[in-house]
């Protein structure tokens, strides 16, 4: 239940404490994105300093993804059962300590372990933070505005991470690891004062231990298999056996959830068409963007010879557009509904990717690359907040953590799977004579795959569009009735 100390006023204005609560939650989301983007640029320096091979360096990135993507389902349900505030603050404290550890170690395995712990803690802060917002702000314009600001912080953090990493790595790669620690500690202290107190769910039917074990094991193995597949081979016995084991674990998980009195995921939630479209849309959206950014970064640095900072500044317009539009998206959702905004955003993303296919070995940034970045930035501004709103609308408070964990799992698993697919396509077409033009030509199929993933997301979204019905007797004062987008379908309460 929302505390009256932080509830919006009767006129819908936000109190200072309500703003403070949102800022604490935004700080955690900002840190998650900042941490992901900063480490990439620092990898060469880390490898040279610690004497790590390329495969070991990969696990500095993959270790975070493994902990994050593998434990999100557990993190979301833990927030519901143990208390959102408690789970969020404990996980944020662990994140700060792991950041400190990562900046001080002199061992590759310890650095990878710290990255896994940071991913694990983010798997608890992300769904807990999102569910605090959805249970604090009432469904409608106030929640839409809060979610648009919250999700914008991810794009802002990612963009700032790219720029900061280029600057900090010049001094020491350790600074990129240490920077999140003081920010997390400040957010933790503020959170102790500002976050609304939440009681653990008392009327639940026990803890779904078998479901938690099976769900976590299946997600961990799935992410691990996808991350390793490009290196060991998609058709190798190891990869095929791993996917078979994932299928067996997921089948067992579904059977357990169907029989559990207090399931980790109530499968009835997925009876909602809007919920399914939100989950699939999240996979397609993030998967296509991660694949595109991976190839675009290689193109700019390896083929054009741009520095890490130059490359970061090339991506900056997309993030800046998202940040500038953060306070406006909620009102746009109120007017047009989530489904239309997601469809429009995917269309802009497809167009941005398609325009990027014009790149050559001597591009004019303003004419060739900048239009794509602006279109992709506009797409991110529309799609990501709308997906969060659509996934959480109509869900009871006691299941907000579960749905938040499910959505974040879709994002992370989609990113891992589709990045691996794009990487495999590019690797398969690698030229025997690696001239710059031949390498660029080998990148184009990967860009086409990323575009195709975005097209699939658009087609999935279009299935949920319905003509807007107009009432002849509608008066201007009835506009309040549109506080919840018309396309948002209520989730079935019972299984």
What does this structure look like?
The protein has 495 residues and is mainly α. The chain folds into two domains: 16-198 and 264-465 and 476-483, Up-down Bundle (Growth Hormone, Chain: A), CATH 1.20.1250.20; 209-263, no CATH class. The chain is 76% helix and 0% strand. It has helices spanning 16-50, 54-82, 84-104, 108-136, 141-171, 173-178, 180-194, 209-232, 237-259, 273-303, 308-324, 326-336, 338-356, 365-392, 400-428, 436-462. The chain is globular, with a radius of gyration of 22 Å. The two termini are 24 Å apart. The model is unreliable at 1-5 and 470-495 (pLDDT under 50). The chain crosses the membrane at residues 21-44, 56-75, 87-105, 117-137, 149-169, 175-195, 207-227, 239-256, 276-296, 308-329, 341-359, 365-384, 405-426, 446-465.
In short:
With about 500 residues, this protein is mainly alpha-helical.
Tags for this model:
495 residues; Growth Hormone, Chain: A; globular; disordered C terminus
Topology (SSEs and partners):
Layout: H1 16-50, H2 54-82, H3 84-104, H4 108-136, H5 141-171, H6 173-178, H7 180-194, H8 209-232, H9 237-259, H10 273-303, H11 308-324, H12 326-336, H13 338-356, H14 365-392, H15 400-428, H16 436-462
């Amino acid at each position: 239940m929302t505390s009256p100390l932080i509830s919006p006023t009767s006129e819908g204005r936000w109190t200072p404490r309500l703003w403070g609560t949102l800022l604490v939650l935004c700080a955690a989301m900002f840190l998650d994105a900042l941490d992901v983007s900063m480490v990439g640029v620092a990898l060469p320096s880390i490898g040279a300093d610690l004497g790590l091979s390329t495969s070991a360096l990969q696990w500095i990135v993959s270790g975070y993804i493994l902990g994050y993507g593998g434990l999100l389902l557990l993190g979301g349900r833990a927030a519901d059962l143990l208390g959102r505030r408690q789970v969020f603050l404990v996980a944020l404290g662990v994140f700060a300590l792991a950041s400190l550890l990562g900046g001080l170690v002199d061992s590759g395995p310890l650095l990878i372990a710290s990255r896994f712990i940071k991913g694990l803690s983010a798997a608890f802060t992300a769904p807990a933070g999102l569910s605090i917002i959805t249970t604090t702000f009432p469904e409608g314009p106030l929640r839409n505005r809060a979610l648009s600001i919250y999700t914008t912080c991810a794009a802002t953090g990612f963009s700032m991470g790219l720029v900061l990493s280029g600057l900090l790595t010049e001094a020491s790669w350790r600074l990129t690891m240490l920077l999140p620690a003081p920010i997390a500690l400040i957010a933790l202290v503020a959170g102790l004062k500002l976050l609304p107190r939440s009681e653990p769910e008392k009327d639940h039917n026990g803890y779904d231990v078998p479901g938690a074990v099976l769900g976590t094991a299946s997600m961990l193995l799935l992410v691990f298999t996808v991350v390793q597949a490009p290196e060991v081979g998609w058709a190798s016995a190891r990869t095929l056996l791993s996917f078979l084991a994932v299928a067996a674990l997921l089948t067992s998980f579904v059977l357990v959830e169907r029989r559990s009195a207090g399931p980790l995921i109530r499968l009835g939630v997925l009876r909602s068409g809007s919920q399914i479209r939100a989950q699939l849309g999240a996979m397609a959206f993030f998967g296509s963007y991660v694949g595109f950014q991976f190839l675009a970064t290689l193109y700019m640095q390896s083929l054009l010879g741009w520095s890490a900072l130059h490359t970061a500044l090339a991506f900056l317009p997309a993030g800046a557009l998202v940040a500038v539009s953060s306070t406006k998206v909620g009102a746009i959702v109120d007017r047009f509904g989530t489904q239309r905004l997601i469809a429009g955003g995917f269309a802009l993303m497809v167009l941005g990717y398609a325009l990027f296919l014009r790149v050559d070995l001597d591009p004019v940034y303003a004419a060739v690359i900048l239009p794509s970045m602006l279109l992709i930035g506009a797409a991110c501004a529309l799609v990501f907040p709308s997906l969060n709103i659509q996934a959480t609308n109509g869900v009871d408070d006691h299941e907000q953590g579960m749905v938040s964990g499910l959505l974040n799992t879709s994002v992370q698993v989609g990113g891992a799977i589709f990045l691996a697919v794009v990487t495999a396509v590019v690797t398969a077409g690698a030229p025997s004579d690696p001239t710059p033009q031949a390498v660029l030509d080998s990148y184009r199929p990967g860009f086409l795959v990323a575009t195709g993933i975005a097209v699939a997301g658009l087609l999935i979204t279009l299935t949920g569009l319905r003509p807007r019905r107009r009432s002849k007797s509608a008066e201007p004062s009835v506009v309040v009735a549109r506080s919840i987008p018309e396309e948002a379908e209520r989730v079935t309460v019972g299984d």
